[in-house]
Amino acid sequence: MPNKHLNPEGIDYKLFTPGPVEVPEWILNEMGKANDTHRSLAYREMHQSIRTNMQKLLSTKNEILIWANSGSGIMEACVRNLVKDDEYALFFTCGAFGDRWASMAKSNGKKADVIKVEWGLGVSPELVKETLDKADKKYSVVFITFNETSTGVLNPLDKIGPIVRDYGALLCVDTVSGMAGTLIKMDDWGIDVALASVQKCFALPPGIAVSAISDRAFEKAKTVENRGFYLDFLSLQKKGKNDEHPITPPIPQIRALKVDLEHIIERGVEQYAKDHSERTQLIRDWAVKEGFEIYSPEGYHSQTVVAIKNNENGPFKGDPALVAKFVDAMFERGFKIVNGYGKQLKGRNFRIAPMGWVTTEETQQMLDAATLAVQDALK
Ligand SMILES: Cc1ncc(COP(=O)(O)O)c(C=O)c1O
Question: What structural domains and CATH numbers belong to the chain?
Fold first, then answer.
């Protein structure tokens, strides 16, 4: 039986949300297959295949860990495994998820300095360089968000990575909503931890997360006390090297990730990312044609989620109620998109994300519906 979700109008709606996203039926089918245990050969083969293909995806030789938690778990793990209590960490934040990472450090008792960029803007390489050059203390780890889902901003990690590497700190990057949908050259860019949840550009249901971690980061973790049990880099590394997991992981999701990665590799890592860029470009073009502005500045546009401003001179004249009506009208027309993030951005913008395996054709259908939904909202 086809696996569908229906809106109140009885229409099979499609998700254009920034995670969780539309999951193709072939992924759902994979999850429904019979399980073996996590100590079986069948499991080890899946684990091994994911490690190999993830390295291809990220252009890295670094170790791949599979986590039985969402992306936030790895974010907390980075803080606990890499920052000693008497060291300082530096966070660059430009939105809600960057802010959350910095607050995780503080709630784990770590010393963290936070450089906040105004929401809607990106973290420039110049800002990173200037901050590190002028620092009155030595930072052991730098934390940054690659693709800030709350604001639709993509930070230039290809330029920021080498600056942090030159300075001598470890670099942890939240690529939760960027990985796979945007090309990442982990080794060339000098990233020590790249982490992601699977409910974004991998198009799996939520539940597991993945990371690539450099040898430098594992070496550092060996010197950090109180890393805990569940989120310990070293225990996951030790078991992972034998394609095993320290605890009982969600096997159906891992099976789906294995097959998903095979499809991504078959499509081509660059092509899969290009598919995302082309779809987000279509959305930005539509928004501008309708009289909206894009929230992110030129050069910092996310390639996986578009945040569209409810500008004063745009169709909704800055009225937050009309964004809500538009989002509802889209749902009635069979497409789920989302309002602006949290209290700060609700009504001030809205977001559309063509992540995963949605096609250009489906994106165009969604935009045709959006043109009509703008008129619905204005009625
Ligand atoms: C950029 C970013 N970081 C972190 C997270 C948190 O990920 P999770 O919900 O998988 O823990 C999200 C979730 O939307 C995100 O978009």
Answer: 14-23+269-378 (3.90.1150.10), 25-266 (3.40.640.10)
